[in-house]
Design goal:
This protein has about 150 residues and is an alpha+beta fold. The chain is built from 3 helices and 9 strands. The chain has 2 domains: about 100 residues, PH-domain like (Roll); about 45 residues. β3 and β4 form a beta hairpin.
Length: about 150
């Protein structure tokens, strides 16, 4: 692994246009509750707790969302969580539009398989997908077969 995160090239997630309002709705709703609480003088605790909860969820699970490739690992950072996959364990990488939950803010995704089954894979959506795939191909020792990278 790189000595520290600054030694890595981080690839930000691609964000689909429709995700912006979808992600903004909870904040707007919490803000409306907080403003109503300030105006009426009632429910201030609910307004503060709901806004704090949304900030904690986004800060803990969503933002920042980015991906990096070290000499030995794929790193997937979302919020406070960093998932790691050894490059030697990556079996296959291919494009997908699978909508299942994943650290990706776009449906223009890459399915990265490190074994059999859903729990041995991750879906990501790097903004610079071509550059990301080229670096992953080179560092992980994968070969290109059509749109896929395979071991």
């Amino acid at each position: 692994m790189a000595k520290n995160d600054t030694d890595l090239r981080w690839y930000p997630t691609k964000v689909d246009w429709w995700m912006v309002p979808l992600l903004a709705i909870p904040f707007l709703a919490c803000g409306a509750v907080l403003i109503a609480a300030i105006v009426t003088g009632k429910g201030m605790l609910v307004g503060l707790l709901s806004t704090g909860l949304m900030a904690a969820v986004f800060g803990g699970l969503v933002l920042p969302m980015r991906y990096a490739i070290s000499d030995t690992e794929l790193l997937v950072r979302h919020g406070l969580i960093t998932q790691r996959a050894k490059l030697t364990e990556i079996r296959e990488v291919y494009p997908t539009r699978n909508p299942l939950s994943s650290p990706a803010l776009s449906l223009d995704r890459l399915w990265i398989s490190t074994g059999e089954g859903y729990f041995k894979s991750i879906m990501i959506s790097p903004l610079a997908k071509a550059e990301f795939l080229a670096e992953l191909e080179q560092r992980a020792g994968l070969r290109r077969v059509g749109e896929k990278l395979v071991r």
